[in-house]
Amino acid sequence: MKKRANVRLQHQQQKRARHTARRQEKKRLTAATQSRGKAMVCELFKTINHFFPDLFDQLRQIEDCRGRSDYTLSEILMAAIALFIFQQGSRNAFNNLRQEAKFKKHYRRLFKLRLPHLDTVHRVLCRLTDEPLEPLKQWLVKTLLEKKALHKYRLFGKYFVVAIDATGTMSFAERHCEQCLHRTSKKGKTTYFHNVLEAKLITANGFAISLATEWIANPLSEYDKQDDERKAFVRLAAKLKQLYPRLPICLTADGLYPYQRFFDICRANHWALILTFKDGNLPSVWEEVRALLPLCPDQHRHERRFQGQERIEQDFRWVTDLDYHGHRLQWLECLETVTHLNSGEQTTTRFVHLTNLEVTATTVIVTSATGRLRWKIENEGFNTQKNLGYALQHKYARVNWQAAKNYYQCLQIGHLINQLMVLSTTFAPLRQGKTTLAHLWRTMIAFLLYARLPRSTLDALAQRRFQVRFI
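^ thats the sequence. predicted structure below, dont judge the formating
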């Protein structure tokens, strides 16, 4: 009997010990989550306060399109931008957060502005023209340029690399507005949609910052052909030159853009270019390349490097001084072979580009790599905005296209602020192990909903001076 009692007592003690251990672990996890959430909020506050201390004053300077109202236009626009900073994905999701008193209190401490209902925000964005938001985005970019935050990512220490590409934003089974693009399938089904052409400043470490936006849209008057990407580029180039007249730019784009009008625009604006050059594009140039390539065997370079368990070998060839309707162009090719050391499997990829920059054995590697940076606008740009929290293709405005365009501009501003935060070296410790950005954003929202954020914490951060470096 005594032995059984001792065994039972031992089991109870072990059970209590396990329960105590689980409770302590839960407390530690809760404390860790709170700490991470607080760190996220502080990083956001530091990013805005460091790079854009005058952001809220800039918002207040925008002329209001209304008469009397309960909320100022700066509060309306900041709420629209915060919708994307917090990656809520819909107006209803952000309204759910707004219903929590603690979230509203913390929001006001962060931004020094009240948080209006998103229906109120939507009604204002339906009336607001495009004019205020594009200059606001331009002011943010120019502030970064004045601070020289992106200067070390320039090509050859001179050119800012700007990628040009279009993407879809919304599609409908029925006509959305008078300026919708449309296509009809072979089965006779017509789809209506809106596309946008972007000029994004891209860097090797992951920045994809919107410099200028041009919508691909049919005119309100009668037209023979629909608007397309090349027509929109003419308008975008004019806007880009007007917004950044002295910015040294190197444009990079896909195989749609090697054509004479594009070359003419770049030469008139003193822009460099590096374009993807597909087989069959500009047949006269390809004919000249094939004729000259055997005559310049010295224009070749081989590179080898190891990356993890892979051996990467690159063979570069180039041909210079090609003439295309008075434009002096260079052709370069990179054959990249990746060998997996464990399995021995090999894959070879070919990259071909046209450029108006000088190509030599010294510059060919950097020039080719810069041409391949064009994928940043697809991956870090459009893919991130569509699938990683920003819900680019969500119909924030199902009926009013003007509001949809304004939401898009607010998304670009919110994404810019988040990029500055995520790519900073002080943010890197928060991403240790397998922690995802989506999880970090959930911890930030949880902290704003349930934890305590003293005003003194933000005041102390605002008074501190610190340096921000990027990974």
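Residues 415 and 425 are 18 Å apart (CA to CA).
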